[in-house]
Fold this sequence. Notes:
Elements: H1 17-43, H2 68-97, H3 106-128, H4 133-158, E1 164-166, H5 170-196, H6 212-239, H7 243-268, H8 273-296, E2 298-300, H9 311-314
Antiparallel strand pairs: 1-2
Helix pairs in contact: 1-2, 1-4, 1-8, 2-3, 3-4, 4-5, 4-8, 5-6, 5-8, 6-7, 7-8
Amino acid sequence: MRRICAVTPSVRFPVSTALLRRLALASIIANVGIVVTGGAVRLTQSGLGCPTWPRCTDESYVATAEMGINGAIEFGNRLLTFAVGVIALAVLVAVLLQRPRRRELLPLAVAVLFGIPAQAVVGGITVLTDLNPWVVGLHFLASMAVIAAAYALWRRIGDPVGPAVAVVPAPLRTLAVITTVVSAAVLVIGTWVTGSGPHAGDHGAARNGLDPESIAQVHADSVFLLIGLSVALVFAFRAVGAARAARAALVLVAVELGQGLIGFVQYFTNLPALLVGAHMLGSCLVLLATLSVQWATRERRPVAPTPDPSPAEDAVPVAA
């Protein structure tokens, strides 16, 4: 009697590198978007539109009609967190389903996914502390960390599988790292400026007690330092023939100049809400442009497959 064996075919999921990279780009855009909408919450004095967390009120998880427009704005921003999380989850699932699976992508995808609820918890603490300006600043910086992880994932997906090779000399890589550190410091000091200014997120929220004029000057000085370092990178990269890195540094300088212009105009026009919101978007763009420069100092080169030995090479010579 003939035996019939059932063979289970291997399942291949159509998750291409192009699709995965589009999902990762959507994750970056979504995380930048929630920074901007979070700024809108603060700039419309809706920071305590939902006066508690994780509920919106003690009796309801959603905003009620009695809470008015401020409640709707704050609750709407909370809902966007779920949308951003869904995109991050889709990226993680795509990473797991991609064939062949790239294990180096998994830690970054997990970091983005779990960074979103962590950032939401910090946002909840800001509400529970009545918009403490230091916690509000931490909330913003947590979002920056998630954006950085999402960007790293997007770039890593586009890179081939292989070792990272430096394309600029070691001193210039060090200069790029210093520029990245200064860029991060500019973001941190910017939160101090925000915490000392008038846009507290609620009329009754406390300020951090720093002198607005003095801390704004410190912030401006740090921006000048960052621009100087970035211009130096442009010329240094060009001098060593690193065209891709030079272009990335030039984009960074352009973004910094645009962000600086917005900062100066908003300072001398008493911080209009629209410009403050644009400045928050600009902060995200500065971060992304800085990371692009850092990425341009190295490149990954695919490892050439080891050729199979031919039968002739394997043959053992036989004595006649």
